Amino acid sequence: SFGSLLQYFTGSKEHNIAIRERGHRQGLKLSEYGITDLESEATEKFTDEESFYRRLGLQFIPPELREGQWEVERAARNAIPHLIEPGDIKGDLHVHTDWSDGHDSIEAMALAARERGYKYIAITDHSAGRGVAHGLDEGRLRKQITEIGKLNEQVDGFRILTGIEVDIRADGTLDLPEDLLSELDIVIAAVHSAMNQEQGKMTERILRAIKSPYVDVLAHPTCRLLGEREPIMVDLEAVFRAAADTNTALEINAM
């Protein structure tokens, strides 16, 4: 009964409790072995999760939504939302190359992205403040902008956007001059240093960057590296409010 086994161990615990309660109301007992009719004690086995949920009168619930919140009620109404799939992604707005800490050229990245079906990428190498990443200073960034312009004339059916992952300094200022940032298609701001600042100072630092008219995205808001680095101390609610007020995107990258 692979379907029920997979569903059971995928969880979450809260989700499994919710569907077990639904099954009990229908006179059914759910387990990793299948679904058992409490009256006849017959156990039905399932080869896939879709048929398991269908037996409960539910639309299939993707694992990403199994949180024990609203998903069972939605599934009962056949109203589970469409989740983003690889084919829905049209481009990548955070790409590093061998100009900083990446491994491939701008052209190679563009061609690989086009092969995946993307329509565009943004080249957002590190700025010079990220010293260990061979980041770009003003002069190198201007050279990169020129190269991207030439490549856009050569790569058919695809657009390469200019950008940067600019460092947010300890005082909240940005690592490159505003007149240069204003020329770019996208500016991603990020904290890479002085990560031990106390919460108030760190929050003000990030808010100052978010409020810059040239910043489009805040990268890795918590600066956490799983298993390697603890998150910074920052008032995320204040960051969320400022991002909403300034129409600044927040990067979600599972870090």
UniProtKB/TrEMBL annotation:
The keyword Transferase applies. Residues 91-170 form the Polymerase/histidinol phosphatase N-terminal domain. Keywords: Nucleotidyltransferase, Transferase. CDD domains: PHP_PolX. Gene3D superfamilies: DNA polymerase, thumb domain, Metal-dependent hydrolases. One of its GO terms (cellular component) is cytosol. GO terms for molecular function: nucleotidyltransferase activity; phosphoric ester hydrolase activity; zinc ion binding. PANTHER family: PHOSPHATASE YCDX-RELATED. This is Polymerase/histidinol phosphatase N-terminal domain-containing protein. It comes from marine sediment metagenome.
